[in-house]
Amino acid sequence: MYLAKFFHRAPGDDDRELLLIADTSSGDGHMLFGFVMNGGSEAYLRREFSAAPEAVTAFRSAVTELCEAGYVETVHTQYQLRVLPPAPKPKPAWQQGLDELLLCALVDDAAAQSALIDELAATPAAQEPFYLWLAARHAFATAPSHARSLARAENARDTLGARRASKTPPYVWSLRPLKVEAFIHDLLCEIHFAAGRQHAALDAAQHAQEVDGNPYRGGRIAWILCHCFPAREEEAFDQAARYAGTGGYDAVTALPAYAAYVERRVPGTPRGRGRAPRPRS
Fold first, then answer.
1. Which sign, positive or negative, has the C-alpha torsion 48, 54, 60, 64?
2. pTM for this one?
3. What does the pLDDT read at residue 267?
4. Does residue 42 lie within any of the structural domains?
């Protein structure tokens, strides 16, 4: 997850970018960079963190330092941007609020999320799929009602689809809209699974993998197949055997049945891995 903020100070010969790279899959490997705009590719600030709270705290501190030095945050979000235009527009407060809401979600600050969700409800942020997703995520984590969380997550999904159909770009900070779409379907998967709707959970997990695939989403699909669809266990084990080296499949490869599967695999067969040898006639 690449989260970028840009800052301008007249006359603009040392505009700045702060870039937080947050690893939301494995939970470690967070990095913070600072760049002088149009000042080459070398970072003036580079720090690594093993935990999200430390990285987010450092990111917020770096933002505060620039603001106290007279810089103003701009509307730009493309993290690969290296030159700001003359007289860039300041970022609206509601967009800054959505940025902060995501940071609070990254560090699981439930109280701050709740306060920001209420505060932003009366602003343009409340119409954004980004807000609807984060609000639904918070509701699922803190409230017992699966129905209410599901309704909010489906609203986020449908609003993002409507924005795409109308070609009205959503505000998603410096994330790609497809990444936010995958996050929404990750949440739908969790809600459906918690409510005992395994087929709907699998559909949502597969959609998330299709739009923004990674090994952890693939591993989740394999895990659901193993635990909820016994007839497809072999398919899940085939998947784990091919991709376990990339991470994300530990919960599947730790199963006793997977160890038995490995023992009966036929070495060297490009397809059909995981099938027992046919008995000779």
1. negative
2. 0.89
3. 58
4. yes
| pLDDT at residue 277, as a whole number | 26
The CA distance from 184 to 259, in Å, is 34
Cis peptide before 86 (omega within 30 of 0): no
Q: In this predicted structure, what is the pLDDT of residue 278?
A: 29
- For residue 95, what pLDDT is reported? 98
- The residue-averaged pLDDT of 69-94 equals 95
CA–CA separation, 191 vs 144, rounded Å? Answer: 11
Say how far residue 89 (Cα) sits from the centre of its chain: 27
CB burial string 133-151: b at 16+ within 10 A, e below = bbbbbbbbeeeeebeebbe
In a domain, 3, yes or no: yes
- The order of strands in the sheet holding 16-21 is 45-49, 30-36, 16-21, 2-8, 72-73
Residue 130, in any domain of the structure: no
What is the pLDDT at residue 42?
Answer: 84
75 with 81: CB under 8 angstroms? no
Tokens 């306060």 correspond to what residue?
115
Q: Which domain holds residue 36?
A: 1-91
Give domain status of residue 97, yes or no. Answer: no
| Backbone φ, ψ for residue 38 (5° rounding) | 60, 25
Are 126 and 120 in contact by the 8 Å Cβ rule? The answer is yes
